[in-house]
Design brief:
Shape: elongated
Number of helices: 21
Helix content: over 70%
Structural class: mainly alpha
Number of strands: 3
Order of helices and strands: HHHHHHHHHHEEHEHHHHHHHHHH
Largest sheet: 3 strands, antiparallel
Length: 490
């Protein structure tokens, strides 16, 4: 029997390894190229979907073409040009929320200073360690002590007694040097007082006095008088009697027993002008009622404005920028108030450097609060912009996605594979991202005393966590998807 010849030409059978599509030696390079192509197509598809949603929203708002075309009725044209109510209402709510934000900062600061003795003491404690304040206290206490101890008069009286006893030359000598003696004793007192004021003992005494005086500050703000803090000569002052007693005790221990004959004195140290206290009393009565309502109202207005807006991301960006702008306005208002305050305090009452130190110390928590909200507003605005459909945002996200994909692919080629963990992270990436954002928000809310640096640190930590989710997440069945897009031999 003659053997059948093997088929040739176009009827030649295809090898089995080509039919099942086993990987060749160039498959790794082709898969990398296909991964990059799939990533690009996904980004373009997401952008197309976002544009379609935007077009649909505009059409629902009455901005699309009329079905009747150019022959549409005049009433239809007027309806097409009509502006919806949601945009102006959302804008008004966001503006109101931004305007209430600075008032909320002032309200919370006032409430903390009034209702919490620990926070009030923490606010005024640094004053006693400031050189300008120490110098002003030293000068005021020294002047009060030396006015009660007339050293020159005592020296002349002693000279007269010596002359009466026959020691004329000695009496005349003491009388001629009475001014020098008084100057030396006054200098000694000034030096001793300066050392006392800068000591740790007086620092503790300052804290104790302010703890007691905190209730008196509440009385002053509520309109009551009396106590360590009061109004005198158009100034809000604090009594220095306890400090005078400490100085007298220290001087007597150093051998200047003459101070023991001093009568009890209680000079005052001015804190700020009483006309600002009147304004503070009016604001106190209002803010003490609204100290919880103002922050809540600001949050509700901002949230409602963002919810009612047709473009939530654009509203979120606007709210963040508006919040930051309102904090800038608050900072400018504080700077103007500082200039007005310094110009209103006479140098004879309080030196300019000490007055500036007092003002800056008392309002530093307000500045800290406005810095926190300023950074928070900028972070929210930036996050809203980068998650939006703009070309810049899409390209930025695509660049990060490509970078993480390249890092992940490099690691896999080097033998580092996240395996089933990476597949699980990829499948649940939306939930993990939402959880990371929620944890960051709760961290900020429950942070006892957040600062601008704390807000920035939380934002950076959130970005790192989101990047880690993107890096670990490994799309499942990448090889199958790559084969589905690869051209098959025919």
């Amino acid at each position: 029997m003659a053997s059948r010849a093997a088929p040739t030409g176009p009827h030649r059978p295809v090898p089995a390894w080509k039919e099942i599509g086993l990987p060749t030696e160039n498959s790794t390079r082709e898969l990398d190229q296909l991964r990059a192509e799939v990533t690009r197509l996904k980004a373009e598809a997401a952008q197309a979907r976002e544009q379609a949603r935007t077009a649909q929203a505009q059409a629902q708002a009455g901005q699309g073409a009329s079905p009747a075309g150019p022959h549409a009725a005049p009433g239809t044209a007027r309806a097409r040009r009509r502006i919806g109510w949601r945009a102006p209402v959302a804008t008004l709510l966001i503006v109101l929320g931004c305007l209430l934000a600075p008032l909320s900062v002032l309200g919370v600061w006032s409430a903390n200073q009034i209702s919490s003795t620990s926070r009030y003491v923490a606010n005024v404690t640094p004053l006693i360690s400031q050189p300008s304040v120490q110098s002003a206290l030293t000068d005021k206490i020294t002047a009060k002590v030396t006015s009660q101890v007339n050293v020159q008069g005592i020296a002349k009286q002693a000279a007269a007694q010596l002359s009466a006893r026959g020691l004329t030359r000695l009496g005349t000598l003491i009388a001629s040097f009475s001014g020098t003696i008084a100057s030396g004793v006054n200098g000694f007192i000034h030096t001793a007082v300066g050392r006392i004021i800068s000591s740790a003992l007086v620092a503790r005494l300052w804290v104790q006095a302010n703890q007691v005086a905190h209730t008196e500050l509440v009385k002053a703000l509520s309109g009551a008088q009396g106590g360590a803090i009061s109004i005198s000569g158009g100034e809000v002052v604090i009594g220095l009697g306890p400090f005078i007693d400490q100085v007298k005790h220290n001087l007597a221990a150093r051998g200047l027993t003459l101070v023991n004959k001093l009568p009890p004195v209680n000079p005052t140290f001015p804190l700020f002008s009483a006309k600002y206290l009147v304004k503070a009393q009016s604001a106190y009565r209002l803010l003490n009622t609204l100290k919880w309502v103002l922050p809540l109202a600001a949050i509700v207005f901002l949230a409602a404005g963002i919810y009612l807006a047709r473009r939530h991301r654009r509203a979120l960006v606007g709210a963040g920028l508006g919040l930051a702008a309102s904090m800038l306005l608050l900072g400018i208002a504080l700077a103007v108030t500082r200039v007005i305050y310094l110009n209103s305090v006479p140098p004879s009452v309080l030196p300019a450097d000490a007055a500036a130190t007092v003002f800056d110390t008392l309002v530093r928590f307000i500045k800290q609060g406005l810095r926190v909200l300023l950074v928070l507003g900028l972070v929210v605005a930036l996050a809203g912009f980068l998650t939006g459909p703009s070309v810049t945002a899409v390209r930025t996200r695509g660049a990060f996605t490509s970078a993480f994909g390249w890092i992940r692919g490099t690691g896999e080629r080097a033998g580092l594979n996240t395996g089933p963990v990476g597949t699980w992270v990829y499948r649940h990436r939306t939930v993990l991202r939402a959880a990371a954002v929620a944890i960051a928000g709760l961290t900020f809310v429950f942070w006892s005393r957040p600062t601008g640096a704390v807000v920035l640190g939380i934002a950076i930590a959130l970005l790192l966590v989101l990047g880690l989710i993107e890096l670990i997440g490994r799309p499942p069945a990448e090889v199958t998807a790559a084969r589905a897009h690869a051209p098959r031999p025919r």
